Amino acid sequence: MHLLLRLTALLCVFLLTPAVHAAGLKVSLTERSRWPTRLDSPEAFDLASRAELAVFVEAMAEADARDDAPGDAASVARWKEGMREVLVENFARARETCADGALLCEGPVPASWEALVVASKEALGTLPAELAPWYAEQKGFHQGYVYELVRLAGLFPQVTSEILPLDPSERFGLELPDRSFLLTFDDGPTPKGGGTDKLTTQLRAEGIHAAFFVLGNSHEARRKETSVKRLRALYAGMCVGSHGQEHRSHATWAGALPGMQTFHARLAESLPEGQETLKLFRPPYGQRNAEVLQALARMGMRNMLWNIDSQDWHASNSGTKAAGRVLSLMLVWRRGIILFHDIHPKATEALPRIWRETRGSGVRWVDCREQ
Ligand SMILES: [Zn+2]
């Protein structure tokens, strides 16, 4: 009987854990260590981008052929349609710097998903031998990544997430220009001397203005530990957005809206210099509903999600793997909003590697104050 009770309790915990970010879920990781060159010019970025896109396209076409996507079929179909358009457009962009004889530049630029699938398959079938280890590493990564996305799309009607929009006003990153990326950090601030301090120092040294989506309770704790003046200095040069009072699903938590205006007014008292109002909101787990979006619109705020997830919170991830995953996804998406967490130490290791790898590539780190 005791065992049965314990099993039931375990099952309840599992079912109550937000399904999309269930702790036991495997995430797809790569060190992306086998690619032979740095991304130190626009041409080098585009060549690597064509290669990553071809592998992603191959993995997605294989998933299509299996036709075993979990969850809501209409939602998966809606996501696939949008994703195919993005991939065709991105591959055409990555072809713009093609010179004579460059890899993955053969034939006309594929103008449809079907043509892109054929072109990717042909190109990957004739890869030079020195790229075989890279292909083996990235194939497994993209197969896993496609599964992550398809799964989120299938779950979307039930729990919502960053995979699809609920409203056209929401930002995901695809509205940014080619090669432009915005860095964002969730779940902070940490206590004094923690990840938030380290990251904001690193970002200022690099001249990057990133957005930090703070939790009301953690922000209040840090305010009590230090002061309003010190909070302003902590986020100097950055943007502060709201991640909710508590880390709970804003699709289902009845307490999400009642106190929001008061806690946002409290946050607004300690914004860094140069930021006049609290403009950006990001719901925990990306989970929200129409009511939350309407309330944000009334407050003059915008919902900002992401398209590139570092998965840095996951126990199996590391600084090197988070960098490898983010770099791979930057090459597939070619622009976007990148999600890290300042409460986990991995971003402090991953970011210098990403910056080093993309120096000279034409990648632009978007200023959060322009958003
Ligand atoms: Zn969060």
Describe this protein's structure.
- There is one protein chain.
- The protein has twelve helices and eight strands.
- By secondary structure, the chain is an alpha/beta fold.
- The chain folds into two domains: 130 residues, no CATH class; 191 residues, TIM Barrel (Alpha-Beta Barrel), CATH 3.20.20.370.
- The strands form two sheets. Strands 1, 2, 3, 6, 7 and 8 form a six-stranded parallel beta sheet that branches.
- It binds zinc ion.
Top keywords for this entry?
single chain; 371 residues; alpha/beta; TIM Barrel; 2 domains; 6-stranded parallel beta sheet; two-stranded parallel ribbon; 8 strands; 8% strand; globular; disordered N terminus; binds zinc ion
Fourth-level CATH superfamily of the largest domain: Glycoside hydrolase/deacetylase
Helix vs. strand class: alpha/beta
- Number of alpha- plus pi-helical segments: 12
User: How would you describe the shape?
Assistant: globular
Order of helices and strands: HHHHHEHEHHEHEHEEHEHE
Question: What order do the helices and strands come in, and which of them pair?
Answer:
Elements: H1 2-16, H2 42-66, H3 73-94, H4 113-125, H5 132-159, E1 180-188, H6 195-206, E2 211-214, H7 216-225, H8 228-234, E3 239-242, H9 260-268, E4 280-281, H10 290-298, E5 302-303, E6 308-309, H11 319-333, E7 336-341, H12 346-358, E8 364-365
Parallel strand pairs: 1-2, 1-7, 1-8, 2-3, 4-5, 6-7
Helix pairs in contact: 2-3, 2-4, 2-5, 2-11, 3-5, 11-12
